[in-house]
Design brief:
seven-stranded antiparallel β-sheet; four-stranded antiparallel β-sheet; about 425 residues; elongated; alpha+beta; 10 helices
Length: about 425
Amino acid sequence: MVFRFIISGGGWCDVVSRNGHVMDWAVLLLSLSMMAIVNCGGCKLEHCTRLYDNQLEEEGVPGPEATPAYCQVLLAYGQCLQETGRYCRGNLKYHTTMSMLKPLTIRYNCTQAKGGKQSSRPGHHPSSPDHSSRPEPACSFNWRRRSVYKYCSLFGDPHLKTFSGSHETCRVQGAWPLIDNPFLAVQVTNEPVSDASLATATTKVTVIIKGRSTPCTVERTYEATADLPLPASFIDGTYKTDHISINASTENNSEKVEIYIRYIETTVVIRRVKRYLAFSAKLPADLIEPLMQDDSNLQLCTQGCPPGERLDLVTARGEVMSWKAAVDKCQAVNTLSNDVTSVLTDQYLDWCVFDAMTAGAGHGFTSAAHFARADALTMDPESLLNRTTPLLLDQSQLSSSSTYLYSLYVHLTALISVLLVSRLMSS
């Protein structure tokens, strides 16, 4: 007989009775008591943390301190976490814990403990090589092409603009990676807008600035949730270093946090409008293009949404609001902040109409569309054609080919308008 127990962290253990008979309660209780140290499948973050706490108590260490005893406990904690790392992928609590180890190691001078067990005898100082003449590694990035950038954004139900310039509306419920390269990782969590719709919206954004690939920083994590004000600092309390800064602002019932990573010239913007979050980022092409050629990764900003997660604006839109009412609402001139004063254009207009028809008013999606366009105007102005004619999202009887032809007509009209204006200005 097999008894299967769920353990903390999402793993499980099987306990088998001998000869297929029900084991007695003494054996069962003994098995349960041993579960904390049995090497069962799953992320063992909490198991490692319990061992860390127990070892602190056994060594008589009250807490983090610059002593050999504490350094050995911290080193064992790090080794335990590394051993379970393969089972903790996607576990943000695990990655947050890992990001705190290096600052603790440096703060309490535990870097020497990695070479072996330190002696605690008074007056004993193990010899170590002199590194005073070794130059510090330079904080730099090997550019091939400066001033060439890629832009990605996600907002609304949600609507995605990829680094390659494609525009998609997706379902992507749950946790999804947006960006993951040697320097930066971004993950979002999306939840359904309503039970009657396929659309979702972003409720959580996690930004991890990696420290292993660069001497410029230790690992830092920023986390935003839609039900709380945007934090003005990383989770460790820092908001500014020599190479990274966070600027937070609030205007007209909306919040904005801008993270700037100087050594890779990367800007990340997170906005909170009413119940949901929005994201946009501008990165060097040198960082992005190698990942765009890798079809195996699931990063939304590089590969777009999986085909099965994409939504058609015509067939997937809701009927909470009429198309005309939605267009009127989205085309109204809004002054949402000092940097957002224009009407919506291009895909941002189409997406706004889709959101209004699908979710109705009260979710802040119209404001989010204005902010998204403002971010594009600042970080990716070449992508805007200033088209003001919305797609006919109320024509559900349109075939996919006719929808494509209408979209093509709209884009050609906008392009001709831009060319005529340019010609008039040049003459």
